Amino acid sequence: MENEKPLFINGDKFVPFINEEKIQERISELAEEISKDYKDSVPIFIGVLNGSFIFMADLLKKISIESEVDFFKLSSYGDAKISSGKVKMVKDLNCDPNGRDIIIVEDIVDTGLSIKYIEELFENYHPRSMKVVTLLMKPDSLKYNVKIDYIGFQIPSRFVIGYGLDYQQRFRNLPSIYILSE
After folding, report:
1. Which of 14, 23, 19 lies closest to 3 in space, CA to CA?
2. How far apart are CA 10 and CA 18, in angstroms?
3. Nearest to 132 by CA among 95, 92, 105, 164
4. How many folded domains does the chain comprise?
5. 109 found inside a domain
6. Would residue 117 count as lying in a domain?
7. Is residue 128 part of a domain?
8. Which member of 58, 79, 110, 140 is catalytic?
9. Tens-digit pLDDT profile for the chain (182 aa)?
10. Which neighbouring-strand residues pair with 150?
11. Is the pTM higher than 0.70?
């Protein structure tokens, strides 16, 4: 990461945090673990838009079992750096998850509010099983008792961008993850 320079955005300084190579290494490990756990199943990977799309694409390329894909979109941030504390559904599922093995794909678990909302939502769907995979988790920010089954990286409670994570809908396309400098 020595060759990656800090980014200055709206007066904030973001410094390199997790490089692309490290991200891809960890995704390979997660894919191997999930493929092993679901070797006798055809799970539906459900990405939480917009943030999960890059992580989910790279994860699915490395999954060695048959699977299906769907997305839904939740909103809890708007244009802010912190969650609004309220979640709303913006796009619902197209698949029928009843009786199926579901793997929810998140970019980041912060307070756990979105996961709590998803758990409550899926009580109505009656899946066979439901697990959660996230690229990033902020354990010190958790406010809800939620179970995350597969975690890419545990990170401090600071704002991050890149690799699908945005700041006011921008900077998702950065191949590495940057963290707001203290």
Report:
1. 19
2. 22
3. 105
4. 1
5. yes
6. yes
7. yes
8. 110
9. 446 899 999 999 999 999 999 999 999 999 999 999 999 999 999 999 888 999 999 999 999 999 999 999 887 655 555 555 677 777 778 888 999 999 999 999 999 998 999 998 888 889 999 999 999 999 999 999 999 999 999 999 999 999 999 998 899 999 999 999 98
10. 133
11. yes
d(CA 105, CA 116): 14
Amino acid 76: pLDDT:
67
Interval 66-86: pLDDT, tens: 999 999 988 765 555 555 567
110 catalytic per annotation: yes
DSSP letters spanning 36-87: HHTTT--PEEEEEETTTHHHHHHHHHH--S--EEEEEEEES-TTSSS--S--
Find the radius of gyration of the CA atoms of the chain. Answer: 16
H/E element, 17: strand 12-18
Interstrand relation of 101-109 and 44-49 (parallel, antiparallel or unpaired): parallel
| Cα–Cα distance, 159 to 149 (Å, whole number) | 23
| Full residue range of the structural domain in which residue 89 is found | 24-158
Q: Is residue 182 part of a domain?
A: no
List the CATH number of the domain containing 72: 3.40.50.2020
Q: What are phi and psi of 33, to 5 degrees?
A: -65, -45
Q: Give the C-alpha separation, 181 to 48, whole Å.
A: 27
